[in-house]
Amino acid sequence: MAEETIGVGLLGYAFMGKAHSNAYKTLPYMTWPPPYRPQLVSIAGRNKEAVAEAAQRYGFEGYVTDWRELVQDDRIALFDNSGPNSLHTEPSIAAAEAGKHVICEKPLGRDAEESHEAWQRVDAAGVKHMCAFNYRFVPAVRLARQMIEAGELGEIFHFRGRYLQEWAVDPDSPLVWRLSKAAAGSGALGDLGAHVIDLARYLLGQEVTTVSALTTTFIEEREGTKVDVDDAIEAAVEFSGGALGTLEASRFCRGRRNGLGFEINGSMGSIAFNLERLNELDVYMTGSEPGASAQGFRNVLVSEADHPFWEWWWPRGHIIGWEHTFVHELHHLLSAIRDDGDVAPHGATFEDGYRCAEVCDAVLRSAESGRREEISYRD
Amino acid sequence: MAEETIGVGLLGYAFMGKAHSNAYKTLPYMTWPPPYRPQLVSIAGRNKEAVAEAAQRYGFEGYVTDWRELVQDDRIALFDNSGPNSLHTEPSIAAAEAGKHVICEKPLGRDAEESHEAWQRVDAAGVKHMCAFNYRFVPAVRLARQMIEAGELGEIFHFRGRYLQEWAVDPDSPLVWRLSKAAAGSGALGDLGAHVIDLARYLLGQEVTTVSALTTTFIEEREGTKVDVDDAIEAAVEFSGGALGTLEASRFCRGRRNGLGFEINGSMGSIAFNLERLNELDVYMTGSEPGASAQGFRNVLVSEADHPFWEWWWPRGHIIGWEHTFVHELHHLLSAIRDDGDVAPHGATFEDGYRCAEVCDAVLRSAESGRREEISYRD
Amino acid sequence: MAEETIGVGLLGYAFMGKAHSNAYKTLPYMTWPPPYRPQLVSIAGRNKEAVAEAAQRYGFEGYVTDWRELVQDDRIALFDNSGPNSLHTEPSIAAAEAGKHVICEKPLGRDAEESHEAWQRVDAAGVKHMCAFNYRFVPAVRLARQMIEAGELGEIFHFRGRYLQEWAVDPDSPLVWRLSKAAAGSGALGDLGAHVIDLARYLLGQEVTTVSALTTTFIEEREGTKVDVDDAIEAAVEFSGGALGTLEASRFCRGRRNGLGFEINGSMGSIAFNLERLNELDVYMTGSEPGASAQGFRNVLVSEADHPFWEWWWPRGHIIGWEHTFVHELHHLLSAIRDDGDVAPHGATFEDGYRCAEVCDAVLRSAESGRREEISYRD
Amino acid sequence: MAEETIGVGLLGYAFMGKAHSNAYKTLPYMTWPPPYRPQLVSIAGRNKEAVAEAAQRYGFEGYVTDWRELVQDDRIALFDNSGPNSLHTEPSIAAAEAGKHVICEKPLGRDAEESHEAWQRVDAAGVKHMCAFNYRFVPAVRLARQMIEAGELGEIFHFRGRYLQEWAVDPDSPLVWRLSKAAAGSGALGDLGAHVIDLARYLLGQEVTTVSALTTTFIEEREGTKVDVDDAIEAAVEFSGGALGTLEASRFCRGRRNGLGFEINGSMGSIAFNLERLNELDVYMTGSEPGASAQGFRNVLVSEADHPFWEWWWPRGHIIGWEHTFVHELHHLLSAIRDDGDVAPHGATFEDGYRCAEVCDAVLRSAESGRREEISYRD
User: Fold this and answer.
1) ipTM of the complex as predicted
2) Residue B126 has pLDDT above 70, yes or no
3) Chain B partners of A252 at a C-beta cutoff of 8 Å?
4) Domains, chain C, ranges and CATH?
5) B310 CA to chain D: closest CA distance, Å?
6) pTM of the predicted model over 0.90
7) How many helices (H) and strands (E) does chain A have?
8) Alpha-carbon distance A139 to D57, whole Å?
9) In 3-state terms, chain B is what percent helix, strand and coil (to 5)?
């Protein structure tokens, strides 16, 4: 049982670089037998000293300070783009056109235009491509999708989603790249809101058709520089299947450490989720027996043997951490590569990344125009 | 200590009539000594048999089938309008112009025009007037207001409010007056959303300045009749102090029995509330000692001796019910009458009822126009 | 529909006196039509000024400073003993032997001996008797009982109960009668633990057969006087049906305002309850459809039209308060009087009060002897 | 920065073997720079095919079917005993006497006698020894300990602990070694209760002095064999510092997937924990400012930069999983080895394993004798 290896080149060694590295190192023994045993060929970053330490720490065979070297490295079959937003599209396209499979962190691009080009060119290259919306790979989220897809919630009336954090409340918090339009494209919108949009699309299997939105920048100057991205967005949205809902993202919510949550209401039941308790799903079902006189939201600890991804982990009730979403995600991608299978529908493709970007753009357009913006998706 | 009495005439014997009656009967001994001892003079309703039974049940001295008789009854000093929405303004105006103090159930009118007239004429009559937004009188809500007013939350960034129920999901649920525009003015908007709007205004001490809204009617026909009111609304809103937020109301949320809730985020803390647990307030405060390393949302059981309204009730931890909001509300009104004091700011006046109606109208306008609607308030 | 009245004489005007008075005043219109309309004949208390004010406040026709006058008052058909523990048995016996129905606050007596005599003599008098274990009349508790009785939980393995408060932590809190053996019989045991014991017996339909217990007095002297009752008890217990469990009571639990709670585990499901959220019941059921892949504790908001006692209150989700347990309890007693029906099994009789006292005595015996004490119940 | 390596030999490849292997593979890059880089020398198990696969899966250089080969292997400096209970003491002693540091899964032995000998002989060998009570290494548990140790809770009155699971309710669940006295020593007691006992000792810094306990076996025969261990235990206990509490363990609690929880009440505050939400700690503190009018249990998401162990993980709010307790635990042990430091007080030593076993033995003795059993600890 000597598994085949797959050469991986990683761009980025910060938050996402650490999370992806951990997943490459964990999946070979946790998702046993693994689709491939990742060979950590090379890691790229601009700071030589830092990237060298990252290579040593995570066990990459080498490191480079120019991502183009990853693209040219024949040992690398999978290009993992965990860099900042401004480096998402160009390296991803180059890698794909060099014949490498590509996974790119979200948001795919800084706007829909950039994202569309990335999708078109990467897809044309004939490689597997994935936009790293890792929250699709939370067991509870996959379970929610399964229930909705099986019709257990009936017709869907509402999706209410929000991603709330608090770090930007402090006026002295440093002017990180996430607060710059050139580097990030947008603020809370692309950083947090993109996750909410992708979950809405994934869970409902519906597209966002209109957006009525507001944005704001509460602290307009930091470190003497004007902040040119949003601190928070609020939007009322319509979905292609007739559901109505809200999309919210903010970095100004005291006490919300990592508050991604959603509630979905259907004719037969409802589902609610909170990332800070990612092993749980709150589920309401109508009219079930037994205990028919005792209906209410069930607090489901998603850790049963037949729950999504759970075969790889522990006995029921032994909860898993946030970083395991990346294990599931990369296992999914490696399986698609091995089997020449589809990344969609459970994995987000670059097309999903592009469609999410269209919604983000519509949020900004609506905030600017004061109008309900209809969204048209390009092929 | 012989308390003075005040003659009360009540219009309506259904849900709200029962709730108000209970409050009149409870407050004389619970809010001891009471501002007045209510004398239940007469109750009005269209169905003679039903109103006669209500009079017997709640201890009214008499009953009438035409509310105009209440207006003409000199024994009555306080006219309590607990009738359906279509009967809110005309009887309230008539009673005030007959010199009676008036409390009217929410929404004040079926639209801003009607509400404005009611406010202007009732106010001109020189009587005390109150719009029965009873959730201002939940101890936890009053505590939230006190904390915000004292600056404990700092600058307010967000108000996120929703009122979710589920009864209309059933296509066979009867075509009650709440589903008719002529009788109710609007659907979930005026019935549920009005409460959210009033709480936002009350808690933040800010006005809603713009609304970007959607409405929908999921079930367009019931009992062979076209439903002409909204089943759900979603709105992104701006406040006069710069806060951003959402207002939501829906009757299509399975499992949400009576889901009025809000979350407020400020620079120094956050507050969350859920009417289904109305004795609790979730409070996050930054940087507090002791336990500085252990910060998180505090689940406050609002039942301490120094908590709002609590002097009248039980030892800590012995929770009170939804109906006690009416006891507090009517105690507040009777005290204002006795002392010739102001109903505002803690009680909602007809002006508050009107201002809420302007926001409701803007929701409908925005849903129709597809534009962000600015709200201007008339004097 | 002229309801008959029943004359009530009440002993005690403090915490329980207020709670019972409120119930007598509320039930005539809330439990409509009521079994009887209570006529508040007279209230007894030692402090003349205070009892006079209570009479005025609650609407009693008269007041007395010696409870014996209530016993001799022919207008009184129901004697309500809401006095302190040391006044539970003698007045209750006297009233019953004078032909009055009797409701007596818990604990029935200060020990099993006293309680047994009260039961024997009151029962021999042929009147209706009730020991006011009001938590049997929480809708969620009645629902739990119904589910267990119907077999929905299967065989019962565990009952885990506790009643935790915090007021006695403060060494300067006054030396109230609840801290005196002569006045109260015991400390947290009879005050709080008795409720847990009664709920265990009521819910399981099983008797406690053995007790292995500890007691302690954390603060041994207050106001210069030695405290001769327990501050806390802990017990491991066996039930007649084979279940094992714990009984706990303490006044030294910071943050637990009124923490009565229990968990029951059966072969087919589990139930958990917390008095601070008395409108809720957490219910786990095995293997239910639909949503079979999504099992977990259901947070049931006990407010459905078909839930116990709910016909008298509000639309679903409009929660009720702690004091309404007394409305249900007294409605139950008045119905039994009217119909010459049984107070048991849903109401606790003096026999239940006695049996509870046997368990309390066994707790003290076991704490003293260091042995597992078997309990035998006298006829 | 070439870290030194340490040779590891692992006994056991099942549940615990997987958990320990994962930790050895994760800690070198997560706890960066690591105290040692573990070299996975050899893994031992009785089933040759299974242990061979485990070696391949987890990356051990070799495998053996007799643990004695690990003891004799000079490349191994750390012997990790993740075998079943019956194999805990003999191999651990042999390894220590061969000069290897030892970590052994809990319970240390099947009874106090066995455990005492293991402690004495391993300690005499002069190696580092650890009993793998991994729940000491939950960040929330360490935070609780820090708060108690710093006096933030004041004097401790109560410890209430329980470990509830449900798998044994099914009469057809297989007769695993955990249901056999010869293999396991005891049932729920040693498997689950031992964790509760260790946490009580660790958190309070007090010893259990007396035990009043019950045990039961609900299903007395499985697969035709008599079950000779407990299914559940309940105990009331006293601590050396005067606190009172309960210890509970059961495998018969429907809906409790992995229900380890405790509550600690002190004169200044309380703490509660639930392993199913292991990233959270509920903390009540008296009298804190700001928000003084809003006190309640704080739901602390233990993921701040200054929280225990959190430096190694993710930004706040990105929760970690159950298995990371082993990463922390083994990092602690490797650090003690590197620095020749003490495993205690944060790590459990074999002495802690022995002391826990004395409490377990006392539970069985008390259940048998019907007496409160005092516990004396041997040196």
Assistant:
1) 0.96
2) yes
3) 157-158, 265, 267
4) 5-135 (3.40.50.720), 138-348+355-369 (3.30.360.10)
5) 13
6) yes
7) 11, 17
8) 23
9) 35, 25, 35
